[in-house]
């Protein structure tokens, strides 16, 4: 058994009948290109450098759908692309579930994703909402949040500009973008028609 760190998969062209491919702990990234492997049913890419940023996620998943049509088991654990709360503290179960819906939307034949079996309910949700599950964040979210915390005027407030000053206690007339109808108010259930 030989362990080799891979950056390219060009040599796989000659193995067209390959059924299982384990590429864990390598330096494979978003530019991963597999040759056409029509019989491949298991692909593990754990602990690589795959990060689904911008359109790279869609491009990689579209590529896998095209070159490995028989794929039934895919594992991407340990990559930035897989938002696992055990690896990254900022991620939670909802992030992971959105990731699953998006991957299942692109790779419809999967029976297992990472370590979990694909359920019928997940498959149905992926068909309906999977295309909308990609999480997009601003390019420099940390810099934007640091700038917002440094200057208090950056925070949104629904109050008009004149009432933001703490020393000014006069009432101000203005328009608000929210309208309260009272439909879901607990207090309104005690008011009867003759009291209106």
UniProtKB/TrEMBL annotation:
GO terms for biological process: melanocyte differentiation. Gene3D superfamilies: Ribonuclease Inhibitor (3.80.10.10). It comes from the Eukaryota. InterPro entries: LRMDA, LRR_dom_sf. PANTHER family: LEUCINE-RICH MELANOCYTE DIFFERENTIATION-ASSOCIATED PROTEIN. This is LRMDA protein.
């Amino acid at each position: 058994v030989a362990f080799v760190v891979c950056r390219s998969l060009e040599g796989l062209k000659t193995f067209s009948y390959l059924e299982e491919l384990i590429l864990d702990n390598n330096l494979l990234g978003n530019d991963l290109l597999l040759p056409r492997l029509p019989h491949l049913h298991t692909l593990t890419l754990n602990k690589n450098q795959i990060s689904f940023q911008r359109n790279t996620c869609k491009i990689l998943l579209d590529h896998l759908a095209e070159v490995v049509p028989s794929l039934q088991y895919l594992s991407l654990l340990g990559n930035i692309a897989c938002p696992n709360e055990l690896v990254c503290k900022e991620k939670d179960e909802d992030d992971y579930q959105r990731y699953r819906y998006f991957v299942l939307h692109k790779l419809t034949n999967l029976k297992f994703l990472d370590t979990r079996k694909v359920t019928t309910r997940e498959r149905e949700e992926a068909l309906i909402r999977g295309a909308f599950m990609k999480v997009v964040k601003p390019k420099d979210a940390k810099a934007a949040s640091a700038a917002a915390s440094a200057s208090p005027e950056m925070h949104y407030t629904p109050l008009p500009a004149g009432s933001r000053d703490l020393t000014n206690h006069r009432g101000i007339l203005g328009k608000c973008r929210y309208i309260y109808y009272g439909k879901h108010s607990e207090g309104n259930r005690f008011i009867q028609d003759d009291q209106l």
